[in-house]
Design a protein that fits this description.
With 610 residues, the chain is an alpha/beta fold. The protein has 19 helices and 14 strands.
């Protein structure tokens, strides 16, 4: 059986027929992993604990705060919700299954796809999507095809924005396909054609050229249809239109029987030959019933029990999956004594020191800050454009004469080019080992970064310092120097100073989570440190390994973590994938300009909307 030589949508076999594009990724966190979820969770985490990681994943994707969570597919027009298919991880009695990394990958993938559907469509598009997936209602063949096309459309968007997460979505698709009922050769032709079309759209790796030969005529018609749309549709309206056309092809399809050999078929009750007759066709209602079952088995993620009697447990899960979220009101009304992120990390509001800030500012090269500002300003765009001579869109009033002559290219389309916002975070090591000239360099470096980004409208800036065990042992303290809606006083950076110990791993991960709670944007997190983790019960090789692990987890939240190493005590490469070595503050501006100029194209991406 020969393999498929060409995918309808030009997806590559080496990318598992997805829209993956590794050139858009900051780092290859999945390299060498069969189970992607192993990157996010510990070896001893249960499925219940590991599942809560989706809280962080949802924040990266940007699920709106006013969205509710549900375990079942719903089409609720008043309360938009995102499905968390927790029942995938539970048996029919509602008990969590034993740890299964492949199942966890599929669970993450289903949750990510549901979140992408919620955030990468308009509200009306999302309701249309959920309605087509809701098998408790009257859905059918057109809904199945629309849902498959639309999820592929959103997966393409996800590949552009968060290509690493698309790998989980593919794991979910494969999981559903492997557990779906097999459509055998004895099934009616229309059902087999329906199965073939869904596989071509969603599982092309699972078909061969011989599968296409059986349905040569409808496949040819479908290829012409896809050329008309130029591949995967760009809007829900186009998905619905293509789904209607595909539905008509399936409904009208008739499988002609081969003429029987001479001498056979003469004993028919009607006395005639069966030559030229067709096998019985399925009715539209039959096809709709088959389609509804395919939506359940291939699209929706419900497995095991329905949440039903476990409503309270589901509510507890969704409350716990975003730890500390209910402690962080939008008003940023923090306790003056600080805010406990969890039982081991505390955030404190920083003091102000105007004189120390101004003294450090005099030692910073302001001209280099202006160079970086111009670099980012040139990349930022927000401008409209018009595309003329289109085959669809708004009628171009300058082409009325052509319209009378039935010229097809008489339309124009309005579009806009914008660039995405980014965030920049800074975490300063304020441990005792940073005393003397090191903390002076760190303060100057932080102020330089503040000068670069503080007035950029398309950059959110977050700056913190960290120490540990002072005043209470076993606690990590992060001082907030700059945070949108909470601390914006630049002179607070003047109060940066060496204090106590440093539990680097805990501080970096808490820092990344804090920034992620405040913004869905991707960006850079700079860590200014001398690279020596040391705190009560936290030192040596184990502390270095813990820091490396938590740097990776911080990067999994959608950031690139870069150490600015100040007279490093531990080689940066042991803990960080990206680093800038700083022996003299005077060299930092040039080093940062060189680094940013290489990264700016990946950080600030153009988005075109029509």
């Amino acid at each position: 059986m020969s393999k498929l030589s060409r995918d309808w949508f030009n997806r590559r076999a080496e990318d598992a027929y997805t829209f993956a594009d590794d050139s858009k990724r900051f780092f290859s966190w999945d390299r060498g992993r069969d189970s992607y979820s192993s990157f996010f969770v510990r070896n001893n985490d249960s499925l219940k604990v590991a599942a809560k990681m989706i809280g962080s994943i949802f924040r990266v994707i940007g699920v709106p705060k006013d969205f509710e969570y549900t375990n079942n597919v719903e089409a609720n027009s008043r309360n938009p919700s995102v499905q968390i298919p927790l029942s995938m991880l539970r048996d029919k009695k509602g008990n969590y299954l034993d740890k299964d990394t492949e199942l966890l990958d599929a669970f993450y993938g289903a949750s990510i796809q549901n979140a992408a559907l919620a955030t990468m469509q308009t509200t009306s598009e999302y309701y249309q999507t959920m309605k087509a997936r809701d098998t408790s209602k009257d859905v059918g063949l057109k809904d199945l095809l629309f849902t498959v096309l639309n999820t592929e459309r959103i997966d393409k968007k996800l590949a552009d924005r968060l290509p690493g997460y698309l790998k989980f979505v593919q794991k979910f698709k494969n999981h559903r396909y492997e557990n779906a009922p097999v459509v055998g050769e004895e099934e009616p032709a229309q059902k087999r054609l329906m199965d073939l079309i869904v596989k071509m759209l969603r599982y092309p790796a699972n078909i061969s050229e011989s599968d296409l030969e059986e349905f040569e005529k409808p496949v040819t018609a479908i290829e012409r249809l896809l050329k008309k749309y130029g591949g995967i549709p760009n809007t829900t309206a186009e998905c619905a239109s293509m789904a209607t056309s595909l539905t008509n092809i399936i409904v009208k399809y008739t499988e002609d029987e081969e003429p029987p050999p001479p001498g056979e078929g003469d004993d028919e009750e009607d006395g005639g030959s069966s030559s030229g007759k067709s096998k019985p066709k399925l009715s539209k209602s039959d096809l709709d019933e088959i389609a509804k079952e395919m939506i359940k088995s291939l699209i929706n993620a419900e497995e095991g029990n329905k949440e039903g009697a476990f409503t309270k447990e589901f509510e507890d899960f969704t409350e716990d999956m975003i730890p500390g979220a209910h402690h962080i009101p939008n008003s940023k009304d923090y306790d003056e004594e600080g805010f406990a992120e969890d039982s081991t990390v505390v955030f404190l509001k920083a003091d102000t020191n105007v004189s120390a800030y101004k003294n450090a500012l005099h030692k910073v090269d302001g001209t280099k800050a202006a160079v970086l500002q111009k670099l980012f300003a040139r990349k930022s765009k927000d401008q409209a454009f018009v595309m003329k001579s289109m085959r669809s869109g708004r009628l171009d009033t300058n082409k009325i004469a052509e319209a009378v002559q039935n010229v097809p290219t008489i339309y124009e389309r309005m579009g806009r080019v914008t660039t995405n916002k980014i965030c920049v975070g800074v975490l300063i090591d304020e441990s005792g080992s940073m005393g003397g000239s090191k903390i002076d360099k760190a303060r100057q470096a932080a102020i330089f970064i503040n000068e670069v980004f503080k007035n950029m409208p398309d950059v959110d800036l977050y700056m913190y310092g960290h120490t540990a065990d002072t005043p209470s042992t076993h606690l990590t303290y992060l001082r907030v120097y700059r945070e949108k809606g909470y601390v914006t006083d630049p002179f607070s950076l003047g109060s940066i100073e060496a204090r106590g110990n440093n539990r680097d791993g805990d501080a970096i991960l808490a820092f990344a989570k804090r920034v992620r709670k405040n913004t869905p944007n991707q960006g850079l997190l700079f860590v200014l440190s001398d690279g020596q983790p040391s705190a009560v019960g936290y030192s040596g090789k184990s502390a270095i390994e813990d820091t490396k692990s938590k740097v990776q987890k911080a990067q999994a939240l959608g950031f690139q973590v870069i150490q600015i190493a100040i007279e490093e005590s531990v080689p940066s490469a042991q803990m960080f994938d990206y680093f800038i070595k700083m022996t003299d503050i005077k060299n930092l501006p040039n080093d940062m300009i060189n680094y940013m100029s290489r990264k700016v194209d990946k950080l600030i991406k153009e988005r075109v909307t029509l």
